[in-house]
Each structure stands twice: as structure tokens, then as C-alpha cells.
Amino acid sequence: MRWTTLFIIGLFLAACTTFEIRVETPSNPNEEAIATLAHLMFKGTQYAQLLSTYDGTPEPISPTLSVSTVSGRLCYPGAIPPSMNLFFRNLSTDELTETIIDEYEDSYNVELAPGPYYAFAWVPQYLVGGLYSEKVVCGNGPNCADHSPAIITIEAGTYITNIDICDWGFTSDDLPLPAGVQLRGGNLYLQPIQ
To answer: How far, in Å, CA of 193 to CA of 173, rounded?
Structure first.
């Protein structure tokens, strides 16, 4: 009886199981596909080698600042500061950067590219000009008599303060005018500051 039971269980298992035999024919190899696969495997190996030498700590990427911020006071000698044009002259390129200052404004903030500069301002109609001079650097006191322009050296990404336009009373003979400005019937072009 035992053998009979085992035989019936074996038949039952055999009936539930399907045996499949598949015979595949080899396909024709595609040489282009094999070359592409070999190339990808080679590139993957190179990438894996690069990753194996990577220490896992990425270097922070910091943006390179190409401009600086310059600020200061506008010490116009009158009771109410008029509107004016503020200029920064790059001594390397002779380029003028102009900022318009509204009436009643007594300070400014401007962004400039690196380089050496002179800073000066003109009131409307270019009647009188002000300058960031050696007198201002000295403290504008009674012992400070040098009215020559002070050089501002600007480096990238810095914030420069106290570039005060506080030496006033200059004329077009003393300060440059923007190119093409008509004054007293003449066409005055940018002249070097002496």
C-alpha cells in the first residue's frame, strides 16, 4: 500500500508539471552592435575608475564676483543737494561710468568693475563740480590743501565705503566732461584730469 500511494503521488506530480525543451538557433552577430557595446563597456570602465579615485567630498563652487560696490556721501555745500551726475573714470580704460543722483540725495551706492578710478560729480548744466580728492582723504580740515584727485583702487568682489564727493568748486577746466557735452558754445570732449 505504501508503494501504491507513492506511485499515485508521483503520477499526480508528473501530471501537474510540464517539461519544455527549447532549441534556439544562434543569430548572426551584428558587428556594429558589438563594436558599440564594446565602446560603451570601455567608457563605463573609465568612468568607474574615475569614481574609484573620487574621495566623495565635492568642492564647493563659488561664483566669481566681477564687480565691487562703492559707496559714499555727496557733501554739496548748499542747503539742499541738487540733482547731479556722478562719474567714475576708469584710469586704465578711460571709460566713464555715470550714475544719476536725485535732488535731496546725500549718498550713493554704485557697482563698478575692478580697476583704478577717479570719482567726481557735476550739477546740472555742468556749472560746478565736486571731487573725491586728496583733501577729502586727508579729512577736509584746514591743513588739507591738496585738491588733486584721489585714486580709488577697486578689486573684484569688494565693498568700498567712504568715497565721499566732498571737495567742490571745480569748473570744466579742472574736471573732465562727458564726451560731446556742449558748454559755452564749444564741443568739449573728455580731457585728462591733471
So the answer is: 9
Question: Is the Cβ–Cβ distance between 84 and 170 less than 8 Å?
Answer: no
Segment 147-158, tens digit of pLDDT: 999 999 999 999
Phi, psi of 191 (to 5 degrees): -110, 150
Please report where in the chains the cell 563740480 appears, as a residue: 129
Sequence ranges of the domains in the chain: 68-188
pTM for this one? 0.61
Q: Grid coordinates in use for 2?
A: 505504501
CB proximity list for 19: less than 8 A, separation 6 or greater: none
Q: What pLDDT score was predicted for residue 12?
A: 56
Nearest to residue 159, comparing CAs of 46, 26, 68?
68
The C-alpha atoms of residue 38 and residue 165 are separated, in whole angstroms, by 70
DSSP reduced 3-state for 167: strand
CATH class of 68-188: mainly beta
19 membership: H or E segment, kind and range = none
Give the confidence band of 193 by pLDDT, cuts at 50, 70, 90. very low
Pairing label, strands 181-183, 129-131 = unpaired
Cα–Cα dist 73/44, whole Å: 61
CA–CA separation, 123 vs 110, rounded Å?
Answer: 18
To the nearest 10°, report the CA torsion of 160, 192, 142, 123: -80
Q: Give the sign of the dihedral formed by CA 132, CA 83, CA 69, CA 192.
A: negative
